[in-house]
TrEMBL record:
Residues 16-111 form the STAS domain. Belongs to the anti-sigma-factor antagonist family. This is Anti-sigma factor antagonist. Transmembrane segments: none annotated. Gene3D superfamilies: STAS domain. It comes from Streptomyces prasinosporus.
């Protein structure tokens, strides 16, 4: 089991959370806490980078849903980037790939 680390920084669009390690029942609250602690002005975008995520159980997916609900309530957006293939498959099988915006990189296109 790899310990979970969450590093916060900023992008031009808003806050960035880089998640590494294993996201499970023992630490899913850490992800929710990091999202709640992020400054999310209306119209900003919270980017969650999952490139270094090693494992995610159902508690981790529930935490991602809670993060999304918090972000939407703040009037902001959420983008998951560099989602590992195993998690991407789970999101697809559960229909959550229609709920989350998934991107390959941090670079957010603006129209």
């Amino acid at each position: 089991m790899k310990p979970l680390t969450i590093v916060s920084s900023r992008t031009p669009a808003g806050p960035l959370l880089e998640v590494a390690g294993d996201l499970d029942h023992s630490n899913a609250h850490d992800l929710r806490g990091a999202a709640v602690g992020a400054v999310l002005p209306a119209g900003s975008v919270l980017v969650v980078d999952l490139d270094e995520l090693g494992f995610c159980d159902s508690s981790g997916i529930t935490a991602l849903i809670a993060v999304r609900n918090h972000v939407v309530a703040a009037g902001a957006g959420l983008v998951l980037v560099a989602v590992p293939e195993t998690l991407r498959r789970l999101l697809h099988l559960t229909g959550l790939d229609q709920v989350f915006e998934l991107r390959d990189s941090h670079r957010l296109q603006t129209n």
